[in-house]
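worker-3 :: picked Olfactory receptor
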Amino acid sequence: MLRNYSSATEFYLLGFPGSQELRHVLFATFLLFYSVALMGNSVIITIVCVDKRLQSPMYFFLGHLSFLEILVTTITAPIMLWGLLLPGVLKISLTACIAQLFLNLAMGTIEFTLLAAMAVDRYVAVCNPLRYNIIMNSRTCTWIVIVSWVFGFLFQIWPVYATFQFTFCKSNIVDNFYCDRGQLMKLSCDDTLFTEFILFLMAIFVLFGSLILTIISYTYIISTILKIPSASGRRKAFSTCASHFTCVILGYGSCLFLYVKPKQTQASDYNKVVSLMVVVVTPFLNPFIFTLRNEKVIEALQDGVKHCCHLFRK
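worker-3 :: tokens ->
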């Protein structure tokens, strides 16, 4: 498996250490998380598309966010699950590794751009409600989503290209459950310091650029909510933002630890834990965050369940 004379053309993912029994327990746990993430986010997409009460910019963005969560977890989770079933290490081709890394980074960039757009949407809804429908019209929302996708894909072309320009001659064993950029750089015999610094600056640009926009939006939102005279009015206004704010904390919190560090070659155990938060736990929690704290979504779900029960009884 070792390649100590030329660049690797395939990689082996070590995944999770431990006995086969432990790996089977992890497989069952992560399969449950993955299945719930797929079903939960698919349900959100469905009700946003079919329920007229959810035909607004907030839920339009929520539907796209749920679609992104499905993609984020599907890019990594199936390979991780397959690796847990195998008795040894999982082999992945160079092409598959490049594709996985690129899609993983691109989806993350799109998601942060979309979270920032959702923060601006909540700002307009709370601070400028009379002009909300004019500012956040369907054309504007559609263009925001298109720009987010184009930006996400274009922005990550150079980082992935630069990563795979290195010669991976130390080994072709990646100490993670997916093609992690930091662990890939550990395998290089070249000097990666300058590239790591550029990647650090690019991560800061994406994460802090969208985070600053989110913080500014919520500063105005909180200031406006505090000026509402009635407690019920303040509670109702804040409830429209609580789900998005929770999602922001989860998304930014984990990715700041994973990507915003000058030295990309972080300890593998640290990367595995944070990566699990990004690709498994957050997509799993997303449906619960946006359903348990949103009355309109709960009502739409209840009506959908009643409608399905009525159909089955016929």
